[in-house]
Write a structure and sequence with these properties.
5-stranded antiparallel β-sheet, Thiol Ester Dehydrase, Chain A, about 35% strand, about 130 residues, alpha+beta
Length: about 130
């Protein structure tokens, strides 16, 4: 089930000295996709309430400045206060990056807090998602 996807073009500033995208760019693209999803479900959401707990990525094909890419974000696990996403960055020649990250929802006190009900409903298996 795809939760959300975004598309973009690799900016020159996303590349390193080799001309290929820098490995950290994929994390930014995935995070931007996650944040766009939150904003589509919870207008005015405080993005700072979803810090990272864990991240991982494997790199399969390079992307160069000017290449178009798409990030597809899916839910791997929905816990009480955390969401683990898997994501794929696809470019002109296929899958470029596969990654995952776990975000923990925190309350105003900075401690883990239950995932908001409206978000949980959108992430539940079989729910209509963007």
């Amino acid at each position: 089930m795809s939760v959300h996807s975004t598309s973009g073009v690799v900016a020159f500033s996303d590349t390193d000295a080799s001309g290929r995208f820098h490995h950290t760019a994929a994390y930014r693209w995935a995070e931007n996709t996650e944040h766009a999803f939150y904003r589509s479900v919870l207008p005015g959401v405080d993005i700072g309430r979803f810090p990272r707990r864990a991240t991982a990525a494997s790199y399969h094909r390079p992307l160069m400045a000017g290449d178009e890419y798409t990030v597809g974000l899916q839910v791997e696990h929905l816990g009480n206060s955390s969401i683990t996403y898997t994501w794929t960055v696809t470019g002109p020649s296929g899958v470029c990056v596969r990654g995952e990250h776990t975000a923990v929802h925190v309350g105003a006190d900075g401690r883990p807090a239950p995932v908001p009900d409206v978000l949980r409903e959108r992430l539940a298996p079989g729910a209509g998602v963007a």
